């Protein structure tokens, strides 16, 4: 009888441990980290279609971070943060200007070196695209790294911070291509 009670207690302890582990994994996935699949080529050459990444849901987006957000069409998009609230954005001769200061975008160098004609990013100002001089409070301006083929803030406008799921830096699959994204 004592042996049966001991086995029953052991089974109950294992069941509790398993339930706690599953609940903890659920909380972590829902509130802290989650996997995401890159779908499409809008972030080439930085990210490829089919890359799997980890999204950190706890960070506030910073300039040049790669973020996932809920797009107007009801899909999740992955793009790079270019403009923060209050920023004045302009592109001229393939150079990014934020608040009048030129910024280098080393993540685009590979793409720019492959161009045979024209610029990677067409000239524009934030005002031409959105009608606003600056990125509105509580919003960000995002662009895909594949500037010629990306549906981003140039087409869908600025993104409310409330729509941002999180930031991502780590490609974990395919395993041979695992790396930290810059």
From TrEMBL:
Residues 11-173 form the Peptidase S26 domain. The chain crosses the membrane at residues 17-38. GO terms for molecular function: serine-type endopeptidase activity; signal peptidase activity. PROSITE patterns: SPASE_I_1 (PS00501), SPASE_I_2 (PS00760), SPASE_I_3 (PS00761). Pfam families: Peptidase_S26. It comes from the Bacteria. The active site is at residues 42, 79. GO terms for biological process: signal peptide processing. It is found in: Cell membrane; Membrane. The keyword Transmembrane applies. One of its GO terms (cellular component) is plasma membrane. It catalyses: Cleavage of hydrophobic, N-terminal signal or leader sequences from secreted and periplasmic proteins. Keywords: Hydrolase, Membrane, Protease, Transmembrane, Transmembrane helix. Its EC number is 3.4.21.89. It is a single-pass type II membrane protein. Its main location: membrane. NCBIfam families: sigpep_I_bact. Belongs to the peptidase S26 family. This is Signal peptidase I. It comes from Heyndrickxia ginsengihumi.
């Amino acid at each position: 009888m004592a042996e049966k009670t001991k086995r029953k207690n052991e089974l109950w302890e294992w069941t509790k441990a398993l339930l706690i582990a599953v609940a903890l994994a659920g909380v972590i996935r829902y509130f802290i980290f989650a996997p995401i699949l890159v779908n499409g080529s809008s972030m080439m050459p930085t990210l490829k279609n089919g890359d799997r990444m980890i999204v950190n849901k706890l960070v506030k987006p910073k300039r040049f971070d790669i973020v996932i957000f809920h797009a107007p069409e009801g899909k999740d998009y992955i793009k790079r943060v270019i403009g923060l609230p209050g920023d004045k954005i302009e592109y001229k001769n393939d150079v990014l200007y934020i608040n009048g200061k030129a910024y280098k975008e080393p993540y685009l160098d590979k793409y720019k070196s492959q161009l045979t004609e024209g610029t990677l990013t067409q000239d524009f100002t934030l005002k031409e695209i959105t009608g606003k001089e600056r990125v509105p409070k509580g919003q960000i301006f995002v662009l895909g790294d594949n500037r010629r083929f990306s549906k981003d803030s140039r087409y869908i406008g600025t993104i409310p911070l409330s729509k941002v799921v999180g930031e991502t830096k780590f490609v974990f699959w395919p395993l041979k291509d695992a790396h930290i994204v810059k």
